[in-house]
Amino acid sequence: MGIEREGGWLAAFYFIYFCALGAFMPYWGPWLHDQGQTPLAIGILTAAVQFSKVLAPNLWGWLAHFWGSRPIVMLGTLLTAAGFLALEFSAGNFIAILLITLAFSFFWAATLPLVDATTMDWAQRRSASYGRIRLWGSLGFIALSLGMGVLISIWGMQAFLPGILLFLVLAWWVSRHLPYVSQVPSSTQARPRMTPVLRDLRLWFFLLAGLLEQASHGVYYAFYSIYAEAHGLSSTSVGLLWGFAVLCEVAFFWWGDRFIRRLGIPLVFTASFVLTALRWGVIAWWPGLLWIILVQSLHAASYAAFHLAAIHWIAERFPGALRARGMALYASMVYGLGGGIGALAAGWSWAQWGGQWTFAAAGLLAFFASVFLIKGLQASPALEKKTI
């Protein structure tokens, strides 16, 4: 399989996977509402999706250590699709939806960390760019977050589940062709151990910093549209702002490896945290249209720069057969636990303090997280400036 074809399969997987995610995230709540669920039930079902990312990736990463990534990614995409098919028969029953949601989220959480590990392995072998493969996921998210809205406007919420199901089946088909590298030791080889890595406190400072940085996004994902409309923006303008933010994310993924090569992982990391704090602070205190447009460009820092630097950091710290487990640990702690805590805290803070102070608190949280980041990056030989 040539390098272009291998890269093409990886790009296709990211595009299709994030097409499904782009259809799911904006319309999961409206679909649940259409099924007659109460606001409390919607909150519980949304949190179930987030918190499934805490334990599931670690279990799947551990299994990949023994079985390899290929069977788990294929199984995960296929059984996630089966979960969305099962939702068609839930008949609006809360318990049924909850159990199905826990099931499909458990399998969905298996795929992305393992594919990230596969992509990073491939990029290092081929002297290629992880970011230029990953950006196809962002493009897929844009395509279906907009496209699903069109489908729903034509056919109603009955288009929601079949649309996601289609892309998950496609993701399963594409997963059969990814350039996996077997990192499973033979029966005569000693298996590498996680214990020495886990004993390094710098790892836990890094994970805590990432958890807090992603938790600061909770108010953005849950309430940004409401906040912007409350300050005079139309629904169309808000939608364009979301799209603009993701386009800035795509741009950084395209050029980001060059930034990391020239500036080093610690500097890119630190800048992403400081700019994240700046972003939330500007939204809190200067919510006018001009400033909101300008700070939306900082999504390139708060998400893309953070994620790209983190993937390189994890890849260096968890080499070879440990990489899938390292990616799983990162996904579960940062996006699973951090995302879940951030969503719950944002809802409480919004009710108690209102939007302005909640965004201001998010800015302080991101800035505070940089203290732990500095501790995590101290004297780490794996993070020296390097050629990618």
From TrEMBL:
MF annotations from Gene Ontology: lactose binding; lactose:proton symporter activity
Subcellular location: Cell inner membrane
InterPro entries assigned: HcaT-like (IPR026032), MFS_assoc_dom (IPR024989), MFS_dom (IPR020846), MFS_trans_sf (IPR036259)
Pfam entry (one): MFS_1_like
Transmembrane segments: 7-28, 40-60, 72-89, 95-115, 135-157, 163-182, 203-227, 239-256, 263-283, 289-315, 327-351, 357-377
Annotated Major facilitator superfamily (MFS) profile domain residues: 202-388
GO cellular component assignments: plasma membrane
Assigned keywords, A-Z: Cell inner membrane, Cell membrane, Membrane, Transmembrane, Transmembrane helix, Transport
Membrane topology per record: Multi-pass membrane protein
UniProt-listed PANTHER family: 3-PHENYLPROPIONIC ACID TRANSPORTER-RELATED, BLL5896 PROTEIN
Protein name: MFS transporter
Species this protein is from: Acidithiobacillus marinus
Lineage: Bacteria, Pseudomonadati, Pseudomonadota, Acidithiobacillia, Acidithiobacillales
